[in-house]
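[User]
If only I could read backbone structure tokens as easily as an amino acid sequence. I have put the entry right below:
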Amino acid sequence: MALRLHTPHSRAAAGQVSTAVGLFFVALILTLLTRFTALDLRVMHTDEAVQAHIYLAPMLSGGAYEYHQADGHGPLLVYSTRALCWLTGVDSPAGLGEILLRVTPALYSLGLVLVVWLMADGLGRGATGWAMLFTALSPMIVYYSRYYIMEVPLVFLTTLAIAAGWRYAVSRHPGWLVLAGVAVGLMHVAKETFLIQMIAAGLAVLATSALEFFHSGTGYGQINRRSGRSGSTLAAHLVLAALVAGAVSFLLFSGFLSKPGQFFDSLQSYVEYAKRAEGAGHAKPWWWYLSLIWGRREADGFLVGEWPLVLLALVGMGKAFGARPSRYENVRLQRFLALYATALVCGYSLIAYKTPWSILGAEHAMVLLAGIGAATLFSAPWGRIYQLAVWVVLLATAGYLGRQVWRQNYQWPADAAHNPYVYSHTSPDVLRLVRQVNEAAQARGGDPRDFSVFIIHPESGHPLPWYFRHLGGGATTALPDDSSLLAAADVIITVPEAASLLGALVSSSHREVQETWLLRPDAPLRALFRRSLLGDLPPPTTPPAPARPEPEVPAAEPEEPEAAAALPATETVAPTAPAADGAETTPDAAAADEAEADAAAAPPPGTR
């Protein structure tokens, strides 16, 4: 009969494994629920529409990917969606929809949760489970996982590269470094700004190595020091990984070798990004990202933010540098993550140009550190009551984060007053205009592609071209030289200041509808309909004030159309050169007002 001994260490290790496995399944279920439900609840953002309409739609129509270094970013997002379209049988732009588009970043987000498991022997078993749960419930990660932009794919690939690099450090198997090379190449294909992540990671590796020079005893396996691998072997493996990364990037940027020049265009884009780093309409103070991550009190008094994860991450950083590691973790990886997150936050904070999704990589590194912090709280030998208290605090934290996820994705998905991650977002009010134009097209009958919608707007009116992709027409940033294009359009959509001038040019065939729609809260729209269609239009959604019984509506609101129409048209409709496809919008209200006041000075559409 064998005698089985149960030591305190073995019981603790078994408990960590059970906790990690349980948290893994909880995190998986929460990820599926929060990433793949009600994806069409939020109106399309300009950046989402630009990617779908300018880059993906032509590929579905048989064209090749066209890279625009001004703001298009890499082709990974659209290639991924193109593959998803092939799997689901979608073969034309008309078959696209918000759900199909947003499933793409949601799948990458699912991978972001799962890839943490590759670092379990460095983070620690319990820390891995908590890191996966916090990744599943991080309000910022969840919100942008439902956004058709490049950030979540970029963060996933960055984490995959780190995890593969860690596995190589442990095993010295070159296959892991090749995988890291593939991930780095795809990071470039996702977004050219991956270079910031690479610099931060390189600095973190150097700093971790310097610390290792002065300290010994790093825990699990001593990073396989007995392997006997020489420096020349490591160098050869690194060169192999670099070649793989370059080959992957070149292959995809060049459209599978059909347009090799596009790869070199992506390298030239750094000149443009260096100029934009000064602000370009998105300038924020250095502490803006810290404030965004920490949180704020919303219009209804609810305190939002990831401040609980910040506090846990600080505990995790203290653990990485100050506590003795157990045999089931490694402080090298933990210190690397702490230094990497710090370098990334500092780097992005020093750049004047700031958009909320840009800091997502640093935020995820913080989430991993928060997992280490949570496990550290459990490791203190202070009895059962303390352990129970820690469980209560961490479960309350998870519930608090989950409530934010509900508010920001299902209750206020496009409301900046209640959602800190809403940035220069399309107003849901624009869907009223989309509905009225579609109803006019249906009432007229015939082929929808023969119904022409012409958009004249400093930012090309995105996402309106996406919503009208099944109709005819087009969009421009300036008045067309050929006025017959205006006369041939069934609907003309423009800014209020230009509506009067356009009305005079096509007065015999069109009439301005006395109703205002909002492209964004600070960007009103007006429309001119062909006179023969006006009888088919439903009455305005917002009737004049005398017919409105609600006393809470401000009396000045009904006068808005007249006030807008009275603005001098010559201030905004001066002809300008069309902006490059895939360019970006200015989010700040003051900058948007300047763009409407002078079309010649308007930035290209998007906020990328």
Summary: The first strand starts at residue 296 and ends at 297. Residues 11-411 form one domain. The two ends are 68 Å apart (CA to CA). The chain has a mean pLDDT of 85.
